[in-house]
Design goal:
CATH superfamily: Vaccinia Virus protein VP39
CATH class: Alpha Beta
Number of helices: 11
Number of strands: 7
Order of helices and strands: HHHEHEHEEHEHHEHHHE
Strand content: 15-25%
Largest sheet: 7 strands, mixed
Strand order of the largest sheet: 3-2-1-4-5-7-6
Radius of gyration: 18 Å
Shape: globular
Distance between the termini: 31 Å
CATH architecture: 3-Layer(aba) Sandwich
Length: about 250
C-alpha cells in the first residue's frame, strides 16, 4: 500500500484521533526553544501534517503564530472544529502552500515520515526565513517499560513485521532523518494515565490498523483489552512515552 494512501487513512477516524491520541509535554517545547535558539512566543510557525491540531494547540499556547498545513479532508475538518481560530491550509510538506521566506519555524509532529525527503527538505529551505529552523518529533512508547515492550512485540507479530522492535527509540533518528542537515536531538520522557478503553482507541487510530482487515484488527484489539484488563485491574492504564525531537537550521 502506498504512503499517501496510508496517510489518508486517518481521515475516516479524525474525531477518534483527536479524542484519543496523546498530546505532548511542556518539556518538549522548552527543548524546542533551546535547540532552535529562539522563543516560540511571536514566532511564525508552519505546523505541517498538523492533523487535528494536537501539536498546533501546544505551539499556540506558547505564543506562536501558527499556520497549519494538512492534506486530509477529514483531519482538516476536525482541526477547524478543535482550533477554529487557527488558519489551516491544504497541502503537504512536499509542496508547501506557503510564501518563500515566510516562516521562522517549520514543525512536523508525528508527520515527517509521510514526506518525500528529496522534496520536503528543499521546500522547508524555501519557506524558512534565513536562520529559521526545521523541527521534527515523534511520540513512541517507552521501551524501558516492560508491559509496553511486550505489547509492541505482540502488535508487530500481528502486523507481520519482519524485524524486531528497536530496543532504543534513538533508532528513530537513524531511520527517518535526512542526511547532511546537522540535526541536534533531544529526548523527553513523559506519561499519561488514561482509561483502558481510551488506550485501545488510541491503538485503533494507527495507520497499520486502519488499513488492516477489520475483523482481524478487532480480534487483535480485543486480545489487548483482555490482557491489559488483567494487568490494570482498576481500568486505568499508565502510558509511558519518549518524545524524540530533532532540530536543524537547513
Amino acid at each position: 500500500m502506498t504512503k499517501p494512501v496510508r496517510a489518508r487513512s486517518f481521515d475516516a477516524v479524525a474525531a477518534a484521533y483527536d479524542a484519543n491520541r496523546p498530546s505532548y509535554p511542556p518539556a518538549l517545547f522548552e527543548a524546542l526553544e533551546e535547540l532552535s535558539g529562539a522563543p516560540l512566543a511571536g514566532a511564525r510557525v508552519a505546523d505541517v501534517g498538523a492533523g487535528t491540531g494536537l501539536g498546533t494547540a501546544r505551539l499556540r499556547e506558547r505564543g506562536a503564530r501558527v499556520t497549519a498545513v494538512e492534506p486530509g479532508d477529514g483531519m482538516a475538518e476536525q482541526f477547524r472544529r478543535s482550533l477554529p481560530g487557527v488558519p489551516v491550509v491544504r497541502g503537504d510538506g512536499n509542496s508547501l502552500p506557503l510564501r518563500t521566506g515566510s516562516m521562522d519555524l517549520i514543525t512536523y509532529a508525528q508527520s515527517w515520515h509521510w514526506t518525500d525527503h528529496a522534496r520536503a527538505v528543499p521546500e522547508a529551505r524555501r519557506v524558512l526565513r534565513p536562520g529559521g529552523a526545521l523541527a521534527l518529533w515523534w511520540n513512541d512508547g517507552d521501551p524501558s517499560v516492560p508491559w509496553l515492550q511486550e505489547q509492541e512485540h505482540r502488535l508487530r507479530r500481528f502486523l507481520g513485521a519482519r524485524t524486531p522492535a528497536a530496543p532504543d527509540v534513538r533508532a528513530r533518528y537513524r531511520d527517518v532523518l535526512p542526511d547532511g542537515l546537522g540535526f541536534r536531538t533531544r529526548q523527553v520522557a513523559w506519561s499519561r494515565r488514561v482509561p483502558l478503553e481510551r488506550h485501545i482507541a488510541n491503538l485503533a487510530t494507527h495507520s497499520d490498523f486502519l488499513v488492516g482487515d477489520p475483523a482481524a484488527v478487532r480480534g487483535c484489539l480485543d486480545r489487548e483489552r483482555a490482557l491489559l484488563g488483567d494487568l490494570f485491574p482498576d481500568g486505568q492504564v499508565e502510558e509511558a512515552y519518549v518524545v524524540s525531537l530533532a532540530v536543524a537550521h537547513p
